[in-house]
Write a structure and sequence with these properties.
With 217 residues, this protein is an alpha/beta fold. The chain has two domains: 2-86, no CATH class; 96-211, no CATH class. It has helices at 31-37, 46-63, 75-86, 128-131, 138-145, 148-170, 188-202; strands spanning 2-5, 21-25, 66-69, 96-103, 114-117, 175-182, 208-211. Strands 5-6-4-7 form a four-stranded parallel β-sheet, with helices on one face. It has a three-stranded mixed β-sheet with strand order 1-2-3. Helix 5 packs across helix 7. The longest helix has 23 residues, at 148-170. The chain is elongated.
Length: 217
């Protein structure tokens, strides 16, 4: 058995709390690990090496506030257990979400998890009084989202995210980016990204919103 420290010092929710957490990892030694633990010169057995290590670390374990036996836990299960124990009182989500709008003519962003193409929605670019505005303006937002098709699309995307986000979180994913693209990245994608961000906020998430191409011509 081996005692391993789990670093949590940078967790914002426990920055003011003195906590020492040790995870007890039992029965997790592969053949390679076993060879590393053995003393090649004295012929000390793996069992003896482990026992000696436990004895040396016993004072540290005794000072710990919490000991977790990880014998039957996966990495993701261990992470979730730690988060459940120490996440802040406001219940902030494990999954850190980003919502990004972009323009296809400037290239699809890298390292995104979902890409939604909204070029099928009415394009404000062809409306003179809307062309110089962006999806951050109420007039453009109303124009883009007022159709039944837009409403149905946004509702369907919200339903998809409602289904998948908890599953990704359960699997231990920490970061997820949702990208919404239109032709230039100034009108339709911005309006839809803002709408999705509002819904995510109401659903208890704290999305970070980026409009990559909103100021590009």
């Amino acid at each position: 058995r081996r005692i391993r420290k789990v670093p949590l010092g940078r967790q914002p929710c426990i920055s003011q709390t003195r906590i020492t957490l040790w995870a007890l990892a039992a029965q997790r030694f592969t053949a390679q690990c076993a060879r590393l633990l053995s003393n090649a010169t004295t012929g000390e057995t793996v069992e003896r090496s482990i026992e000696r290590e436990r004895h040396l670390l016993e004072p540290v374990k005794a000072a710990a506030d919490l000991v977790i036996d990880t014998t039957t836990l996966t990495v993701h299960q261990l992470k979730n257990q730690i988060v459940e124990l120490f996440w802040d009182s406001e219940g902030r989500e494990v999954l850190q979400l980003s919502v990004m709008s972009f323009g296809y003519k400037h290239g699809i962003p890298l390292d995104v998890d979902f890409v939604f193409d909204v070029r099928f929605l009415p394009n404000p670019h062809w409306i003179d009084e809307l062309r110089t505005k962006t999806g951050l303006d109420d007039e453009v937002r109303s124009y883009v989202l007022e159709s039944e098709l837009a409403t149905t699309f946004v509702t369907q995307v919200e339903g998809l995210l409602e289904l998948l986000l908890p599953a990704f979180r359960e699997e231990g994913k920490s970061y997820l980016t949702v990208a919404v693209g239109c032709t230039g990245g100034r009108h339709r994608s911005v309006a839809v990204a803002e709408e999705l961000s509002r819904w995510l906020t109401k659903s208890g998430y704290r999305p970070r919103v980026t409009h990559r191409d909103v100021h590009r011509s």
